[in-house]
Amino acid sequence: xxxxxxxxxxxxxxxxxxxxxxxxxxxxxxxxxxxxxxxxxxxxxxxxxxxxxxxxxxxxxxxxxxxxxxxxxxxxxxxxxxxxxxxxxxxxxxxxxxxxxxxxxxxxxxxxxxxxxxxxxxxxxxxxxxxxxxxxxxxxxxxxxxxxxxxxxxxxxxxxxxxxxxxxxxxxxxxxxxxxxxxxxxxxxxxxxxxxxxxxxxxxxxxxxxxxxxxxxxxxxxxxxxxxxxxxxxxxxxxxxxxxxxxxxxxxxxxxxxxxxxxxxxxxxxxxxxxxxxxxxxxxxxxxxxxxxxxxxxxx
Amino acid sequence: xxxxxxxxxxxxxxxxxxxxxxxxxxxxxxxxxxxxxxxxxxxxxxxxxxxxxxxxxxxxxxxxxxxxxxxxxxxxxxxxxxxxxxxxxxxxxxxxxxxxxxxxxxxxxxxxxxxxxxxxxxxxxxxxxxxxxxxxxxxxxxxxxxxxxxxxxxxxxxxxxxxxxxxxxxxxxxxxxxxxxxxxxxxxxxxxxxxxxxxxxxxxxxxxxxxxxxxxxxxxxxxxxxxxxxxxxxxxxxxxxxxxxxxxxxxxxxxxxxxxxxxxxxxxxxxxxxxxxxxxxxxxxxxxxxxxxxxxxxxx
Lengths: 300, 300
Prior knowledge:
globular; 3 domains; 13 helices; homodimer; 7-stranded parallel β-sheet; alpha/beta; Rossmann fold
């Protein structure tokens, strides 16, 4: 089975791809050696995040069109939050992108975030690697900006694009530093709204300390995604960041982060929190270090 | 050495306490058996978080006064972000609380967050446990709301108090869901500002889905911390949450989360990301699963 799936992947068979992703997501037996047997293309992952209502899906839509216009094949992963917040708005987003579902150069897959605080899907590293073993030229990962997914995407994507809108102007002072710190590119979408220029200038000033730390400029791009305006400029900025990261071995640094996450997951296999809770309840003194010692000895 | 420190802790010797915290923070040899030998009191940890400028330090200050008025001893941990943002404002906060530094019933310690995205200090679980082996009746942990620390505090504190101000009114729709999901108690501070009542009503409506999920009401308390107004009510709300969590074994659930974090840290000991980066650079194919397999076999 795995051999024929690998074969299907390399030929761009969409059904094989969809099936492989499901098997990997559910940790089917044989999954680990299968992943180790894949030849992975060094294609970029572009993360697109930002608060709800910033137009991330419209922007993703416009980026797909851009890549398709260059005769590139595009894979898109949408992370749906498990959080009870903003679910309605999100479904609306998904529908907007649907006209790409049947295009032969585009593969779209939604994944549920499974962490309680709305992070990425626990298998997203493996799933994007499956895509790298197929025929695609670029992977877009769209995460709705609720919970942790907007920060976690920086651990997955070679380029993280943070999308915001000018209305957010007054909030800039209290904008979560997390977003500031993960952005490789800022998009100010709906840039025809009043106050957009002032907003962009303020944002550039706010970003100055981050420039210094990252030793690279963080471009601020104005777009009107619904009219496809500014998408060329955004695409160029993304390419520029990619080249910079390639030249400075920063893409390998990201791989090291991913390897760390994979090792951690592997080393925690077979443990679960319910089990730990039972152990704690059976102990009078509530001293975790005694339990830590017991569990460490058990696993040796 | 460790024996006399343990003795000092149990007698409330502040110098022994400060020295123990430093040794634990730096993982001095003998630290693990020392921690396992401690008798930990089941005192509550109260986390206080929220965006910069919400008045967290003034609120912490007022809470200290409240506990001291009840003849309780209070330990306070302030997490200073390693993030380059808001550093100035933060120092201002610290100074405001300084008149408690010499009070015999109060112990205050600042810890640096060491994670790149401004999380909590990596040893904060162990350090709060050291405090539990001393003479204190309650531990307050104040984290400035930049980066990840505001979400991570929920994994440390028995009661998480999220502080915001009415000016944030327009932002409520885009307020990060993380804050909504971790809050056990909301404080609307500076509640004498115009629009405060409307803000509180909107917030209560927004919280309705979270009520349903948590199966407990999340109280919204109005305070003017600088005038000590509303602090009684806040204190009662905190006590109420504590009793609820105690009754429903939710405090043990938190301990299970902490044990999980401790095991994870222990199992990743001896690995670092620089080492992984070297391994990746020496590999042609950039397939992480081959490396994962190699590293798993090495550690057996």
